[in-house]
Amino acid sequence: MAAIILSLLVLSLSLFTVISSSSLPGLQILQAERQIDLTSHIVRVYLTLKVENIEDDPASTVLLAFPPAQFDRLALVKAAVTVGKKRKKSYVPLEVNPTEQPSSPNGTKYYAISLLKPLLKGETTTLEILYILTHSLEPFPVEISQSDSQLVYYHDSAIILSPYHIKQQATLVKTPSNKVESFTQVEPTHRSGNELRYGPFEDEHPYSYFPIIIHFENNNPFAVVEELEREIEVSHWGSVQVTEHYKLAHAGAKHKGVFSRVEYQSRPAASGVSSFKHLLAELPPRVHSVYYRDDIGNISSSRLRTSSKKSELLIEPRYPLFGGWKATFVIGYGVPLQDFLFESAAGARYLNYSFGCPLADTVVDKLTIKVVLPEGSQNPSVEVPFAIEQSLETKYSYLDVIGRTVVVLEKKNVVPEHNVPFQVHYKFNPIFMLAEPLMLAAAFFLFFITCVAYLHIDLSLRK
Ligand SMILES: *[C@@H]1O[C@H](CO)[C@@H](O)[C@H](O)[C@H]1NC(C)=O
Ligand SMILES: *[C@@H]1O[C@H](CO)[C@@H](O)[C@H](O)[C@H]1NC(C)=O
Ligand SMILES: *[C@@H]1O[C@H](CO)[C@@H](O)[C@H](O)[C@H]1NC(C)=O
């Protein structure tokens, strides 16, 4: 008993030190390098921080700060620590979670990176961070005609927002082309081709901020799936059937004026440069029965290429998509069960499938994944490497007696980096495999009996 109390005491004390060390930034950043990649419509920021502990308390977390507007558009924050030197360098992923701070100037929001082991006084560590922003390129002009190129604004700070003192830092911004209309000049700023360099800046105080705006050309497809519902149906009879419902939109500058197909087709290099007419979906290898249809019917202009590693489906909506235009369609396919369903402990199975959206370079505002388990499945549990919303439903299809358990997963703001495997574990009693054939047999038997009875009645009437 005393031992338990003592260990509880130790635990709460250690918790206390963790909390107190994270609320006092006893750290400084010796060097920070930031690279902002604006070449697609999804903004990817790579940050390298060399962090030093300058206080007596060991530090176990490092805070990342974001202005509130940017925080709301974050799709993903990943961090890794570099271990080893030069050639033997490798990266170990670290846990990153949103966190609150008692005092946050100007509504600053935070993520906390948990270090592998606490950093002692005078020690340094180098962190590699990636964060992804969606809906962060603002088209300007807001409306363009068919012959115009698309220009966008990007807002950020020339100085990295941080709760720590940064001794030395620089920011490199990459644009898709060297067509940059304008950019905020800060001393020193250097531009060459499609690269803009802000800094180096020395000895910036915590929470230093210098707003910048970059206005540049970006004609990449601004492909946004406003809603995607994927249904993954597991049948122990040999296949996994996937059905995906898309509500796709072009989120770039709105199209103005009339659309001329003649001009579009005769001058493809100058007309509708920011529009897109096809998208690439990456499907698993060994897909079969692939279809692609919309409200009108099957669209046959899709092309499927399969190899041993992956299948690629090139989908082409009925019309090219210009800014503000939308298209809804359905993609369906089957994959062999043995590629995705595995056995774990006795009687337990799990589905291992890819999360996210199979369309390349696409943002999904709202993703719903419904995993339909075979009838008689029990105790489903889900393993996904990031935060999602989860619930259960029941689905009935013909020949079902008690209905199928459906695991519903929901996530907002999904980017291609979310296309990682997730697992749904469940228990299954093989006796249920017999349920469907038995039902079929029973149905046939009933039909047969009815026929016999009918014939009997018919005959007896004639006599
Ligand atoms: C934060 O607030 C201070 C004063 O309250 C102001 O000087 C500074 O410009 C603000 N920073 C941002 C990024 O708005
Ligand atoms: C569309 O294609 C699928 C698969 O190829 C097929 O099963 C279905 O009958 C087709 N539908 C129409 C309306 O042609
Ligand atoms: C899930 O599948 C991926 C490959 O698609 C594989 O790398 C991973 O190890 C699998 N996970 C489990 C738990 O089986």
From TrEMBL:
Entry-linked InterPro entries: Ribophorin_I (IPR007676)
UniProt pathway: Protein modification; protein glycosylation
Domain of life: Eukaryota
Function: Subunit of the oligosaccharyl transferase (OST) complex that catalyzes the initial transfer of a defined glycan (Glc(3)Man(9)GlcNAc(2) in eukaryotes) from the lipid carrier dolichol-pyrophosphate to an asparagine residue within an Asn-X-Ser/Thr consensus motif in nascent polypeptide chains, the first step in protein N-glycosylation. N-glycosylation occurs cotranslationally and the complex associates with the Sec61 complex at the channel-forming translocon complex that mediates protein translocation across the endoplasmic reticulum (ER). All subunits are required for a maximal enzyme activity.
Organism in which the protein naturally occurs: Sesamum indicum (Oriental sesame)
Pfam families named in the record: Ribophorin_I (PF04597)
GO biological process, one term: protein N-linked glycosylation via asparagine
Compartments where located: Endoplasmic reticulum membrane
Bilayer-spanning residue ranges: 438-457
Nucleus among keywords: no
Similarity comment: family membership: Belongs to the OST1 family.
The protein's assembly and partners: Component of the oligosaccharyltransferase (OST) complex.
Listed name of the protein: Dolichyl-diphosphooligosaccharide--protein glycosyltransferase subunit 1
Record's keyword terms, sorted: Endoplasmic reticulum, Membrane, Signal, Transmembrane, Transmembrane helix
Membrane topology value: Single-pass type I membrane protein
A single GO cellular-component term on record: oligosaccharyltransferase complex
Signal peptide: 1-21
